């Protein structure tokens, strides 16, 4: 399997070659030259597989430059009941016949990003050891991504994590989750600013190409291709859990921000998994919903702060991968479209043949508001005695609107309610239960450095600690 750039300017690379990188060398996103497809027999054989076996079947097609035995070891070490709470890894819960939750948040940080990030941690360690190399991961977080990255990379040889977060702006739970890590390879930096300041520092450091090369600066953001492929696996898992044979179809509703999760669903469908619809659910930041309804992609200058904060995104970084497929995988067309977006503009595909492909790819969409979220949390709690978090509520709200008779609707549960307890309390007048072992999280000793919003200070810190 070779990987190309959506913008056509990168020589073909292997999985291992793109694993540690971020953007492609020409500023585009990395994408396989062709999606692997599964024959009817191969798909039939996968039906009886457990999560680890499924993961191997999916990933070996994308990571074919890693020896099969090594890949298997990495997968078996990653997807364990010990880390994910059960051998199902991503259990399916039925709310009522035809409506289901796919539980993706049973990893260490209680959000779906663990599913991919835990694999990434082990892949990084493996590749770095082979190349006798080291990596300093620099990131900015407002919550979920940073903690998932830290819990995936803690204690890993050859990897250090420098994670910037806005001082005092994360929830006490999120703060404690990150800052209580005592591993010597994890560095929490509380910047005296807002999230955008943190992101600007990361950009400034990454744009210093000499510094970046000399100090082996890397990233683990949501455009990382390995993260997307790891997420393909649970679409297979859910499909087989809910069907009896491969003639049946299933739809998925996906709470979306950076479009990584639903992009994985698109890839599963392209590989031949019988997915009926992929429903993109957004919150008030509804750039993606607008596109799927109208064909107009119009990133907003401002991002609204909502009660499903991990979806507060106005420029979905993985969307470029999907549009590349929409425009017939033509890098020239793609490049033109993104030129318009990157100069602050928008594009309109509504009058092009490409927009019709949205339907062929099974995509539909909807959005949700704070009020919708509260109502959905209440409704699911009252009707099904199940507490769902605010992001999952966005997915359930939009998923129910797109239900079709005879086709199971699977709503992806992207976080546990304990992570967003404030809104749970607002909706239900009671608190979300904490998973065992996390009751006293906020009381644990915390380890972090406070720094001004100054890239030079952050650089100095990285040099001193690597
Ligand atoms: C990251 C995140 C999302 C959005 O996923 P994307 O892959 O960015 O679309 C949704 N819900 C939760 C809880 C998240 O952490």
TrEMBL record:
Q: Give the GO molecular function terms.
A: threonine synthase activity
Q: Identify residues that carry N6-(pyridoxal phosphate)lysine.
A: 113
Family indicated by similarity: Belongs to the threonine synthase family.
Cofactor(s) recorded in Swiss-Prot or TrEMBL: pyridoxal 5'-phosphate
Per the database record, which ranges form the Tryptophan synthase beta chain-like PALP domain? Answer: 105-325
Give the E.C. number(s). Answer: 4.2.3.1
Recorded hits in CDD domains, A to Z, give:
Thr-synth_2 (cd01560)
Q: Which EC class is this protein assigned?
A: lyase
Q: Which domain of life is it from?
A: Bacteria
Q: What is this protein called?
A: Threonine synthase
GO annotation (BP), single = threonine biosynthetic process
Q: Which UniProt keywords apply?
A: Lyase, Pyridoxal phosphate
């Amino acid at each position: 399997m070779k990987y190309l750039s959506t913008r056509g300017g990168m020589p073909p690379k292997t999985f291992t070659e793109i694993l540690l990188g971020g953007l492609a060398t020409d500023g585009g996103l990395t994408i396989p030259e062709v999606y692997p497809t599964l024959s009817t027999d191969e798909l039939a054989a996968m039906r009886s597989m457990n999560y680890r076996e499924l993961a191997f079947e999916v990933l070996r097609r994308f990571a074919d430059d890693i020896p099969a035995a090594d890949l298997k070891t990495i997968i078996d070490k990653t997807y364990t009941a010990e880390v994910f709470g059960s051998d199902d890894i991503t259990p399916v819960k039925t709310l009522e016949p035809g409506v289901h939750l796919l539980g993706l948040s049973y990893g260490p940080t209680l959000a779906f990003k663990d599913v991919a990030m835990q694999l990434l941690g082990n892949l990084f360690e493996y590749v770095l050891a082979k190349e006798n190399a080291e990596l300093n991961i620099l990131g900015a977080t407002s919550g979920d991504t940073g903690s998932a990255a830290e819990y995936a990379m803690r204690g890993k040889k050859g990897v250090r994590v420098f994670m910037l977060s806005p001082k005092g702006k994360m929830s006490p739970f999120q703060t404690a989750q990150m800052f209580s890590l005592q591993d010597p390879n994890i560095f929490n930096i509380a910047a005296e600013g807002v999230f955008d300041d943190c992101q600007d520092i990361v950009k400034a450091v990454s744009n210093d190409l000499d510094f970046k090369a000399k100090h082996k600066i890397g990233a683990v953001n949501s455009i990382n291709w390995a993260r997307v492929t790891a997420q393909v696996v649970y679409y297979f898992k859910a499909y087989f859990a809910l069907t009896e044979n491969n003639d049946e179809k299933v739809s998925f509703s996906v709470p979306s921000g950076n479009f990584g999760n639903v992009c994985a669903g698109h890839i599963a469908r392209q590989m031949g998994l019988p997915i009926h619809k992929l429903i993109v659910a957004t919150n008030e930041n509804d750039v993606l919903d607008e596109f799927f309804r109208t064909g107009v992609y119009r990133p907003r200058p401002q991002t609204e702060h909502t009660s499903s904060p991990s979806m507060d995104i106005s420029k979905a970084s993985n969307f470029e991968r999907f549009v590349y497929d929409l425009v017939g995988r033509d890098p020239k067309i793609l490049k033109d479209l993104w030129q318009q977006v990157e100069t602050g503009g928008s594009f309109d595909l509504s009058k092009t043949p490409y927009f019709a492909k949205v339907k062929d790819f099974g995509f539909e969409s909807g959005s949700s508001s704070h009020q919708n979220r509260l109502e959905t949390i209440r409704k699911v709690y009252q009707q099904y005695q199940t507490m769902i978090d605010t992001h999952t509520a966005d997915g359930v709200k939009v998923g129910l609107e797109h239900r079709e008779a005879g086709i199971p609707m699977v709503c992806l549960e992207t976080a546990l309610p304990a992570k967003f307890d404030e809104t749970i309390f607002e909706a239900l007048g009671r608190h979300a239960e904490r998973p065992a072992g996390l009751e006293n999280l906020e009381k644990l000793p915390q380890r972090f450095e406070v720094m001004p919003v100054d890239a030079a200070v952050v650089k100095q810190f990285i040099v001193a600690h690597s």
